[in-house]
Amino acid sequence: MLISKELNNGINEQVGHELDASHQYLSIAAYFEARHLKKFAELFRKQAAEERAHADKFIQFILDANGEVKIPAIPAPKWEFTSAEEAVNLALNWENDVTKKIYALIDQAVAEKNHIAREFLGWFATEQLEEVSSMEQLLAVVQMSTEKNLLMIEAYISHQ
Ligand SMILES: [Fe+2]
Ligand SMILES: [Fe+2]
Predict the structure, then answer these.
(1) 69 φ, ψ to 5°?
(2) Dihedral, CA of residue 83, residue 89, residue 90 and residue 92, to nearest 10
(3) Ligand 1 centroid to 119 CA: how many Å?
(4) Helix or strand or coil: residue 145?
(5) What percent of the chain has pLDDT over 90?
(6) C-alpha dihedral sign at 62, 14, 96, 34
(7) Measured in angstroms, how far is the CA atom of residue 93 from the centroid of ligand 2?
(8) Which ligand is nearest to the CA of 124?
(9) Which of 23, 114, 115, 150 lies at a 20 to 30 A Cα distance from 144?
(10) How far is the CA of 41 from the centre of ligand 1 (A)?
(11) pLDDT band for position 1 (50/70/90)?
(12) How far is the CA of 148 from the centre of ligand 1 (A)?
């Protein structure tokens, strides 16, 4: 077995966090779609698919390492938002939080001298750089706009 019980448990939890993020982003996509903000909706639907792919990647790693896959219960996502800013801010906070969780898994892998797991987890750390910075940029432009001007941000997103 190429994975300790503790790391296996931590990665199972992370599968839950990725699926949680996927549901949350789908819920945010629906919020934007209902407001006819198609580009925002598209962006969050794409993010939802990416988080789901992350969950798959973690599951495959556990299987390859001969561990045990145990998907935890996923809490219901938030579905009501008062503004685009609130929704995007939630996504940014989430990404910052996930970065810390990935770091904790890497710390665990390093402590166990599990370099296969460390290498594997390194991909996710790099991925967080892109995810956090793109959410920070989106939040910054949303904050420059008023709720009535969000259509302009749609144009911004379509040029990304
Ligand atoms: Fe992710
Ligand atoms: Fe993410």
Answers:
(1) -85, 125
(2) 150
(3) 16
(4) coil
(5) 89
(6) positive
(7) 10
(8) 1
(9) 23
(10) 18
(11) confident
(12) 31
Alpha-carbon gap, residue 80 to 31, rounded angstroms: 8
Instruction: Report pLDDT digits (tens) over 46-71.
Output: 999 999 999 999 999 999 999 999 99
State the average pLDDT over residues 126-153.
92
d(C-alpha 49, C-alpha 110), whole Å: 29
Mean pLDDT of the residues in the chain: 96
Instruction: Give Cα 58 distance to the centre of its chain.
Output: 13
- Position of tokens 């996927």? 22
pTM of the predicted model over 0.85: yes
Residue 139 pLDDT exceeds 90: yes
Rounded to the nearest angstrom, the distance between the alpha carbon of 66 and the centre of ligand 2 is 26
Choose among 71, 73, 131, 53: nearest CA to 99. Answer: 131
Nearest to 150 by CA among 38, 47, 24: 38
Q: Ligand 2 centre from 54 Cα, in Å?
A: 8
Q: Which domains does the chain carry? A: 5-158 (1.20.1260.10)
Tokens of 132: 């956090």
Q: Separation of 144 CA from ligand 2 center, angstroms?
A: 23
